[in-house]
Amino acid sequence: MSDPTTPTTPAPRVALVTGGSGGIGRVTAERLAADGMAVAVHYAGNRARAEDVVAAITASGGSAIAVGGDVADEVAMAAAFAAVEEAFGGIDVVVHTAGQMILSPLVDFDLDRVDAMLRTNIRGTIVVDQLAAKHVRSGGAIINFSTSVTKLAVPGYTAYAATKGAVDAMTLILARELRGRDITVNAVAPGPTATPLFLDGKDEATIAGLAKSAPLERLGQPADIAEQVAFLAGPARWVNGQVVYVNGGII
């Protein structure tokens, strides 16, 4: 029989990071693990990359698993949530970074590609948020990913910004629908951030111009975004129903 006077170590909080196998998602998963959370690293198609993140977290003394699934497939994602609960006993934080960014002037946009992005970015957020609302424990947090482009109105981003405008609306309303649950719901809206996806296809002059656009005169780094996620996932209990622009003051 255990001694009731002996202090017990509380179980770590548990986070599921969709799109956690690369870019901002990977850095976020590693940051939450460094903060003491057990982390489920979600991937859509590249399990090896997710396992690399898991290995990096465990090598640093953390706890992590990889879970897969198309975020827009409610059956696959229900299985992913169940796997996290089976491994760690529950879920406290869901960070939904997974998404597609397909760029084109609206007049030229291939509608099939629009449909693919709508499915991932809008239906995928509905699926993940619906499951999060059912599974996240009291005291937890749901953190979606939006974009500063909804305010910047950059040509070529019409369809992408439209999908993220839908994410903003879902975030604000879900926060109110979870009244009484002690679960916060917010969205992080990065500006230009130096990820491989963002830098791909841009010349040095374009990148330099984007870096100068913020008063801090640099591009954001994935760690800058992960820091805001960690704040919303942990101490920011009075920030709720907000879209937080993380862009160095560009807007």
Compute the number of strand runs: 7
- Tell me the name of the CATH class: Alpha Beta
Query: Mind describing the biggest β-sheet?
Result: 7 strands, parallel
Write down the secondary-structure element order: EHEHEHEHEHHEHHHE
Morphology call: globular
Radius of gyration: 18 Å
Percent of sequence in beta strands: 15-25%
Strand order of the largest sheet: 3-2-1-4-5-6-7
H/I helix tally: 9
Distance between the termini: 59 Å
Mean pLDDT: 94
Portion of residues within helices:
40-55%
Unreliable segments (pLDDT under 50, ≥5 consecutive)? none
Number of domains: 1
What is the CATH architecture assignment?
Answer: 3-Layer(aba) Sandwich
Query: Structural class of the helices, strands and pairings?
Result: alpha/beta
How would you characterize this protein structure?
The chain is α/β, with parallel strands linked by helices and 251 residues long. It has a single domain, classed as Rossmann fold, CATH 3.40.50. The protein is 46% helix and 18% strand. It contains nine helices and seven strands; from the N terminus they run βαβαβαβαβααβαααβ. Strands 3-2-1-4-5-6-7 form a seven-stranded parallel β-sheet, sandwiched between helices. α1 runs parallel beside α2, α1 crosses α9 and α3 runs parallel beside α4. The chain is globular and about 65 Å long.
